[in-house]
């Protein structure tokens, strides 16, 4: 299989824009779902679940029961439980380091300024499901919320054709103590969380990736609730020098390509011979992979080898792409990290493949995609918190600052603002 070869002189912007999905053709369908859920609540969710997932859900089996959770434990093995609990510990530790402290600071005039951080009261987490299992998404959504102190977490995930939720997903939720679990997915699930139904209480925030319908629904409800981000297809960019192993590079490119035919995998190097070796390795390794067809289409349509003059130029290309995942497969990765300005997560060295971050290392794997790492961050504890500013002026402090505040207010033509200071100053 041949992968396209580019240079920095080519129109990389056009190449990067090629995978952007035209959302307009999906908008009408999502708007129809929104209208139905807003007016009919549960019944609309049940009808769309039957239409899109082929499953008859009703008020009696809408929520995952304790019995279903117990059955799920019987269906998973002990090795999975061990790995899951190890991941939980690592993710909890990492996010625990992010927790902010409220603060207040007095000055010499007796004024007090500060900031108080509080968790959101109720959040909804979306976990993709149906034919696949994504227990890692349960952990990455719920653990930072729990570290932040969120008291109510409602989880939604689409059921399979038998009306069951994936046992690995259910066990992951149970291990975190999540009990409010609804069998629904797609846009209808987002609208149900945002606006509430006869069964579901509305939330303050919705997090978690999904398909184009989920993304559009999150975009529509933003403002009624907060959202984490608008996620697009997964992507990886690898910067490699002559010391990088071709078999590692090939494996890591395909690890992202298997997500989706729209996933993007880019290798940037200053070693021309390395590109030929990586291509050989891809053709060798792909034969044994279960999602070969997806990988082949993804790499053919959205994969690329980019040959640069040196590693400094490779960093410039990376900053232009602003990848979700960035691997620095170079001899001394810490020497070039200062040149990296835009990336969701950075994986350093030959022994840190991207899947380490997906599952076990601890940092969150819900990352900005589609170049939004230029201005957006991964999901963190901050995602599930809000801040209030504290301002307490003393009499002396107000007297000292009153004239300046009055002046600024009058410049803006807000005489009532100025008056609220003047009446205090005069009395």
From TrEMBL:
Binds 1 zinc ion per subunit. Pathway: Amino-acid biosynthesis; L-histidine biosynthesis; L-histidine from 5-phospho-alpha-D-ribose 1-diphosphate: step 9/9. GO terms for biological process: L-histidine biosynthetic process. The active site is at 324 (proton acceptor), 325 (proton acceptor). It catalyses: L-histidinol + 2 NAD(+) + H2O = L-histidine + 2 NADH + 3 H(+). Zn(2+) binds at residues 256, 259, 358, 417. GO terms for cellular component: cytosol. NAD(+) binds at residues 126, 188, 211. Keywords: Amino-acid biosynthesis, Histidine biosynthesis, Metal-binding, NAD, Oxidoreductase, Zinc. One of its GO terms (molecular function) is zinc ion binding. It comes from the Bacteria. Its EC number is 1.1.1.23. Belongs to the histidinol dehydrogenase family. Catalyzes the sequential NAD-dependent oxidations of L-histidinol to L-histidinaldehyde and then to L-histidine. This is Histidinol dehydrogenase. It comes from Syntrophomonas zehnderi OL-4. The gene is hisD.
